[in-house]
Amino acid sequence: MSAKPERVPDFVSRFASWDSFLAVLTIAVIVYALLAVENFASVFNISQAIAGVSERALIVLPMVLLIIAREIDLSVGSILALTSVAFGMLIRQGAPLLLAIPLTLLAGGICGAFNGMLVTKLGLPSLVVTLGTMAMFRGIAYILLGSDSINEFPDSFLDFGIDTLGSSPLPETIVLFLLLAPIFAIALQKMPIGRRIYAIGGNPDAARYSGIRLARTVFGLFVTSGVVCAAAGMVYTARLANARANNAVGIELDVITIALLGGISVFGGRGRLTGVLWALLLVATIRNVLGLLQIGGDAQGTVIGLLLIVSLLASNAAERIFASARTWFFKTKTGE
Asked: Residue 244: helix, strand or coil by DSSP?
């Protein structure tokens, strides 16, 4: 009789969290879609839904690290578009894939380094810097290609954009995310770089006095963001079989919404990738369901914007509620 009450507080302490609430909400939305939305459960639809979130899944990984470090990158969609155009132009000029891919990743890294230099060397706020480069990078893409598009790519590259893994519904475009997500999670939760990122976001002055090289760490995060955006640009190009300067317009809203909805604090220093993965699945499911219900892109953008506002309001309030619940059960357990 005495063992059961002892386990209750431990159970509450473990599961009374925003991550758990988000998991329950996501599962509930998926169950609703399975039961009430026609064609949601089809293999083709599931494959398309996963493929459609491939670029967002990639870009949210470095975005999480930046927000935890009290920074942000609004230029991710523009870097994606610019590197997509750069990749397409390299292919059109006859460059082989083995050369075009690393050069495109290098171009993304240069874009990220430009952002990082302005933030770390000149001390400018990343919000303002990346708001400016968001327009600048996409403008460069328009200068390079104009309103044209590049649609001719090697068959092996196009196959990557449409093929699935064997007989499973998993598209090949999600593989890069499946490879990178554990690396980012381990780096953030288990390695010294993760502790430095949390320290910078928690208290930059204290982190600086403790010997952490803030500028180098933040600069590295922006370069990482640029490289990952370039990879996402090539995934986007393979999936849609075109490179255009207006690719991925507005994708930064989705990425930031996923990060904040996943429990990453907008004030920095707090959050984990676990909740972000649930938020990614939730946003992907909502977008897919809205599409199946013939609800257009503008309305979908409205829903994502509302999710962003709700995530800002609800996550902090929910954490206080969960903390109160854990405290109450702890006092119950100890008899205080």
From this structure: strand
Contact (CB, 8 A) for 80 and 236: yes
Query: Angle formed by the axes of helices 54-68 and 76-92, to 10°?
Result: 130
Give whole-number Cα distances, 330 to 17, 91, 106, 273, 326, in Å. Answer: 15, 62, 52, 27, 6
Q: How is residue 320 written in tokens? A: 């206080």
Residue 153, class by beta-carbon neighbours within 10 Å (0-12 exposed, 13-18 middle, 19+ buried)? buried
Helices 251-261, 297-334: axis angle to 10 degrees equals: 10
Give the pTM. Answer: 0.88
What is the DSSP code string of 228-243?
HHHHHHHHHHHHHT-E
10-residue averages of pLDDT along the chain (336 residues)? 47 64 89 91 91 95 96 97 97 95 97 97 96 97 93 93 88 95 94 94 90 94 98 96 92 91 88 91 90 80 79 64 58 58
| CATH fit for domain 3-334, picks 2.130.10, 1.10.3470, 3.30.70, 2.20.25 | 1.10.3470
Q: Is residue 125 helix, strand or coil?
A: coil
Residues 39, 42, 46: CA angle, nearest 5 degrees: 105
